[in-house]
């Protein structure tokens, strides 16, 4: 029996945000920056690549380190971090990786003969006279490159616009020569920032960062993170370098605007910045994005959701789920880790973790782990206090008669089970304090059908939540 897939799609100890998915041959490769668990800064790790066969998005393989941060000549001492990259196959058939170091305004390029081999430095993007893009008088600093190759031309999309910085204008695009580092035309500005958006249609969802470009049915989709941070938006045009109009939100990493199961304005997870893109895999399109863990901005994990296109090419917003790559609801039997929660919240509501570098305080539950990394460090939910809940969507339930939960912590009370975030409990599982992981059971029936499951703690002090088991056999 094929194992179910869920979010996050990589192991719970891996932190690869800013995911750029690309299909090369019969595999999908994800390129992203590399956070650390309990990190103190964005993107401190070397670039790693993960891949999966296009026929099975549950079977991910780590291809290893493909580029070290010390491989860039400007970063021989390794003091700067590798920010979000992208990869394209050039006119010569080789694979080109583009990135920006965290304190430089220029775009670096590396090259490899295979999608996930060892990339080697290939130069800096520059104008024909040799001036580096980002260094010419009047240039905007470069950031978050996204790339698309069509024939002999590669389109390079960049930009970074803080909400309070009027010196920035918006996202931009350059055309590159076949050598992949020389600017042929541009830069041209595409999506406005917050100071230049009046009358454009982008008001309220202006460009912030995270440019990514895809093409479908003759339309160019420019995916980006807006000034709100938590949302991935898209703009659309029939041209790669002009006339983009606002399309909408593809996904929000706190599920803002979604109203299918809760009020649209209510956040259901602790959001923060967002970065990712869309990709077609065996006739199904997906959005890759990231979520925040450990109560900070600096330990982000990749997630996947299927998306659809309307007849006019627009994209309805995707809902955050636990079953993202599973091609449907998860089986309503077996044991599931708590770190796959797609909803996590408490009475003290907050849409965001905090500003970068700040920690959420002790009121908030968070997904975390024991240990620094490796396969032994499974994630779990820490600091569930009275009224806090973890939600999992969705399960196909059939004759579920017993629920067990594995917890630890000083709390005493019960975990209520709900199928709606604000519904009436179906029942509860009593939990008692323990310094080690302890399993608690209760005979509790879930109606047949597809349901979300919410585990809400009621009790004293706090508990950590490791996993839960759904069973049709009360004797299990």
UniProtKB/TrEMBL annotation:
Domain of life the protein comes from: Bacteria
Keyword set, alphabetical order: Carbohydrate metabolism, Glycosidase, Hydrolase, Polysaccharide degradation, Xylan degradation
Entry similarity comment: Belongs to the glycosyl hydrolase 43 family.
Protein name: Family 43 glycosylhydrolase
Organism: Hungatella hominis
């Amino acid at each position: 029996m094929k194992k179910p897939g869920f979010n996050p799609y990589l192991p719970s100890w891996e932190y690869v945000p800013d995911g750029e998915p690309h299909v090369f041959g019969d595999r999908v490769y994800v390129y992203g920056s590399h956070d650390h668990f309990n990190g103190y800064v964005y993107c401190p790790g070397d670039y790693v690549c993960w891949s999966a066969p296009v026929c099975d998005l549950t079977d991910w393989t780590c291809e290893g380190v493909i580029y070290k941060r010390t491989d860039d000549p400007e970063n021989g001492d390794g003091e700067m971090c590798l920010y979000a990259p992208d990869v394209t196959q050039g006119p010569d058939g080789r694979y080109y990786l583009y990135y920006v170091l965290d304190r430089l305004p220029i775009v670096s390029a590396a090259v490899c003969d295979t999608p996930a081999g060892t990339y080697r430095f290939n130069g800096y993007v520059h104008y024909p006279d040799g001036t580096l893009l980002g260094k010419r008088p009047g240039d905007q600093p470069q950031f978050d490159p996204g790339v698309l190759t069509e024939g002999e031309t590669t389109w390079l999309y960049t930009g970074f616009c803080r909400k309070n910085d009027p010196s920035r204008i918006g996202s931009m695009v350059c055309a590159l020569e076949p050598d992949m580092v020389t600017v042929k035309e541009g830069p041209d500005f595409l999506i406005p920032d917050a100071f230049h958006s009046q009358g454009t249609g982008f008001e309220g969802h202006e460009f912030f960062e995270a440019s990514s470009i895809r093409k479908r049915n003759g339309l160019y989709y420019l995916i980006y993170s807006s000034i709100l941070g938590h949302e991935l938006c898209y703009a659309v045009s029939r041209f790669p370098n002009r006339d983009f109009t606002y399309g909408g939100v593809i996904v929000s990493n706190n599920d803002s605007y979604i109203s299918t199961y809760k009020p649209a304005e209510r956040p259901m997870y602790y959001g923060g910045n967002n970065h990712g893109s869309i990709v077609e895999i065996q006739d199904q399109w997906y959005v890759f994005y990231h979520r925040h863990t450990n109560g900070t901005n600096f330990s982000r994990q990749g997630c996947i959701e299927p998306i659809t296109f309307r007849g006019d090419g627009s994209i309805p917003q995707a809902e955050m789920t636990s079953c993202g790559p599973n091609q449907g609801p998860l089986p309503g039997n077996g044991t599931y880790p708590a770190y796959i929660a797609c909803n996590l919240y408490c009475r003290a509501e907050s849409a965001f973790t905090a500003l970068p570098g700040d920690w959420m305080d002790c009121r908030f539950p968070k997904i975390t782990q024991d240990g620094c990394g490796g396969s032994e460090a499974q994630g779990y939910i820490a600091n569930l206090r009275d009224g806090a809940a973890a939600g999992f969507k969705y399960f196909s339930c059939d004759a579920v008669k017993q629920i067990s939960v594995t917890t630890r912590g000083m709390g005493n009370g019960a975990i209520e089970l709900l199928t709606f975030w604000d519904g009436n409990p179906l029942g509860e599982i009593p939990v008692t304090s323990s310094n080690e992981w302890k399993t608690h059971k209760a005979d509790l029936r879930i109606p047949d059908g597809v349901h979300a499951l919410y585990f809400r703690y009621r009790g004293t002090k706090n508990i950590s939540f490791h996993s839960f088991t759904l069973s049709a056999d009360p004797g299990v």
